[in-house]
Amino acid sequence: MTAVAQPARSETTPAPSRWHAISPLLVAVLAAAGAVLVYAVFIRTGLGQTVDTASMRGGDVRHEQVTQVLSRTLQATQLAALAIVCLVAVGVGILRRRLDLSIGAALLVLAANVAVQQLKAHLDRPDLDGTGMPNSFPSGHTAAAASVAFVLILVFPRALRGAMGLLGAAYVTVVAVATVWAEWHRPSDTVAALLIVLTCGALIAWVIRLRRAGGERPSITPARVATLPLGLVGAISTAACLFGLATVAVSERVLPDLVSGRFAFLTGVAGILSAVAGTFYFWVRLTAGDPLAPAQGGTK
Predict the structure, then answer these.
(1) Which helix (H) or strand (E) holds 115?
(2) Cβ atoms within 10 A of the Cβ of 83, count?
(3) Where are the transmembrane segments (predicted)?
(4) CB of 161 closer than 8 Å to CB of 226
(5) CA-CA distance, 65 to 58, in Å (whole number)?
(6) I want to staple 279 with a disulfide (CB 3.0 to 4.6 A). Which of 21, 198, 242, 295 is the partner?
(7) What is the pLDDT at residue 77?
(8) CB atoms < 10 A from the CB of 13, how many?
(9) What is the torsional sign of CA 200, 204, 210, 215?
(10) What pLDDT is recorded for position 210?
(11) How many CB atoms lie within 10 A of CB 102?
(12) Which are the contacts of 31, defined by CB distance < 8 A and separation ≥ 6?
């Protein structure tokens, strides 16, 4: 019997499947549905508002160094700094001869931040917890930080996207926690902002994949240096958040003073960690599946 020679292993795989082409659209739909669910639970119900506000007011941070880090991180989200980072991202895309990524990066930042500001201006927040506080849903600071981190992951070469994903997730976590600590936002505001940014990013990734539908997809897996720790942190923080939410809800409605304000704040932090880990996990995976141009013939 004559052995059939095995074909040489290529660095690329055939054109992406239909599932590969539509998966960003599915992520966008699920992220948008998640943002709607957060609004329905934490803005439109009395218990949700009470738990959310308790999580915000429990963040009485008195450690001087921690306070300085949080304050400086919030200051770093100023419009001028974000614009400079976005210009760098667009420039990297142009240098890599990926004009579609440069355009996508600009659209992502614009769409995500405009969407968040419009929602904050037009969404209704009934006073169900008796605080009389105005609407702050969703968080503009968190959306700005997350959108910048997303575009850097999008435009940088694949070899760097895992490291960029971890750095971006860490930065966005500090920004989101800082807004809650400063009582600018409740935890639900930051979670919804992250989901909105992921929605916009996934839609742009879907358009890019449709544009390059005839190209080859690199036969590489998403950077495990990012997906493994993000998945682990996401699983642990989600479990902690769910337990904390149930406990704080019981404390607010059944057993007053069962838990402290600090416990409620840490529950909100766990929810933020869960949202950051989840959104960045999916974004790293989506950007890893970016197809090559039909005539490109190599990975970049």
Answers:
(1) helix 99-122
(2) 12
(3) 21-42, 76-94, 101-119, 139-156, 163-184, 190-208, 228-251, 263-284
(4) yes
(5) 19
(6) 198
(7) 62
(8) 14
(9) negative
(10) 84
(11) 21
(12) 195, 196, 198, 199, 202, 279, 282
Which two tokens mark 129? 């917890």
Are the C-beta atoms of 226 and 165 separated by less than 8 Å? yes
Q: Which two tokens stand for residue 65?
A: 């160094």
What is the sign, positive or negative, of the torsion defined by CA atoms of 182, 184, 189, 191? negative
Strands 12-13 and 217-218 turn out to be: antiparallel
- Angle, in degrees to the nearest 10, between helices 99-122 and 187-211: 150
List the chain pLDDT tens, one digit each, 300 residues: 444 444 444 444 444 467 677 889 999 999 999 999 999 999 999 999 999 999 998 876 665 665 666 666 666 666 666 777 778 777 777 777 777 888 888 899 989 999 999 999 999 999 988 888 889 999 998 999 999 999 989 988 877 888 889 999 999 999 999 889 888 899 999 999 999 999 999 999 999 888 776 555 554 555 777 889 999 999 999 999 999 999 999 998 888 888 888 899 999 999 999 999 999 999 999 988 665 554 444 444
CA 212 distance to own-chain centroid? 25
Structure tokens at 25: 């659209």
Helix, coil or strand: residue 13: strand
Q: How far apart are CA 106 and CA 122, in angstroms?
A: 24
Contact 162, 223 (CB under 8 A): yes
Phi, psi of 3 (to 5 degrees): -75, 135
Residue with tokens 């769409």: 111
Nearest CA-CA partner of 116 in 206, 52, 185, 42: 185
**Measured between alpha carbons, how far is 49 from 41 in angstroms, rounded to an integer?**
8
Q: Which residues contact 229 (CB under 8 A, 6 or more apart)?
A: 166
Tokens 């969404």 belong to residue: 123
